[in-house]
Amino acid sequence: MEPSSSASLGFVSLLQSIKESVHRLPLRIRQVYIIQAAAWFGWFSFLFYATTYIGQLYVNPIFESHQDLSDDEINKVWEDATRIGTLAMLVNALVSFAASIILPMLVVPSEKQEAAEASTSSSNFRLKLRIPGLSLRRAWLLSHCLFAICMFSTFFVSSPGQASVMTGIIGIAWAVTAWAPYALIASEIAQEDPGRPAHRRARSGEVEGASSLPYVQEIDETRRTAQKSANQAGVVLGLHNVAISFPQIISSAIGSVIFKALQKPRGQPWDTSTSWVMRLGGCAAILAAFLTMRLQEQSRRK
To answer: How far is residue 82 from each of residues 50, 59, 152, 243, 247, measured CA to CA in Å?
Structure first.
């Protein structure tokens, strides 16, 4: 019984440690975590089931016209359907790649980024591309809305071609999702400790003419501070991974219930179970959009 008790205490201690780590984080980072939890509930549905959804649209008219297909023929039809679904995901990846290059040039940077660009030779072309008022938060908000619209478009999409176009459009939202939350977290961490490098240089200058013992103490303090900062960054990214992973477990469990209730036998047309799973993901995206609206723009600290 002792190993079991020790494992139980260890798990409780882990949960307590996670709770304390979350409470120590800035409010804005905690808000990003909550938004990510809602968003990834929907993203898991799309990323995991999109190929099956598009394949189902391909096989529907075939199975309806030929209801006496053998198992081998059904498998051959589904092989073709899988290739079409994979091609649609390739379109999604290409659009996402292009959007990842273009979108950062359209977003208006924060005050600190503007100051950094002012000290460098930023091209006038890049400055002209920026859309006034399109902050990083608003771009993330729009990506949630775009994803939700695409998920609810499954009510009207009826062919693999239409689904491929929808999947390509989602590539734009995916590009923002893979970029915006990390940028928001990084900018918040930077604001929490905006002058650390300069502070270190100033402290080092103070001890240049002092005895060796204070100098060694200063170096030790600097190292401890750097180690603490690195540990904090690890905690932030680790908790962010938890916020992404946990909703995927819930989404998978709920999706299993939907499949159990709605999925038709293999070879029958018009199976809508995958569509309903993706529509549920659209509802999660609406929740993520609502939470993003409540996320304040980055405060400008002096």
So the answer is: 10, 10, 22, 31, 26
In the chain, the amino acid numbered 46 is F
pLDDT digits (tens, 9 = 90+) for 11-47: 677 677 777 777 788 889 999 999 999 999 999 999 9
Structure tokens belonging to residue 274:
């995958």
Tokens found for residue 41: 């509930």
Calpha distance 195→185 (Å, rounded): 17
Contacts of 91 (CB under 8 A, 6+ apart): 164, 167, 168, 171
| Token couple for 294 | 């409540």
Number of H helices, E strands in the chain: 11, 0
Q: Of 259, 247, 256, which is closest to residue 56 (Cα–Cα)?
A: 259
- Sorted by sequence, the CB contacts under 8 Å of residue 45 that are 6+ apart come out as 151, 251, 255, 277, 278, 280, 281, 284
User: Do 140 and 289 form a contact (C-beta atoms < 8 A)?
Assistant: no
On average, the pLDDT of the chain sits at 82
For the record, the structure tokens of 160 come out as 């693999």
User: Is the distance from CB of 292 to CB of 141 less than 8 angstroms?
Assistant: yes
User: pLDDT, tens digit, for every residue of 234-287?
Assistant: 788 888 999 999 999 999 999 999 999 999 998 899 999 999 999 999 999 999
In angstroms and rounded to an integer, the radius of gyration of the C-alpha atoms of the chain is 25
Polymer length of the chain? 302
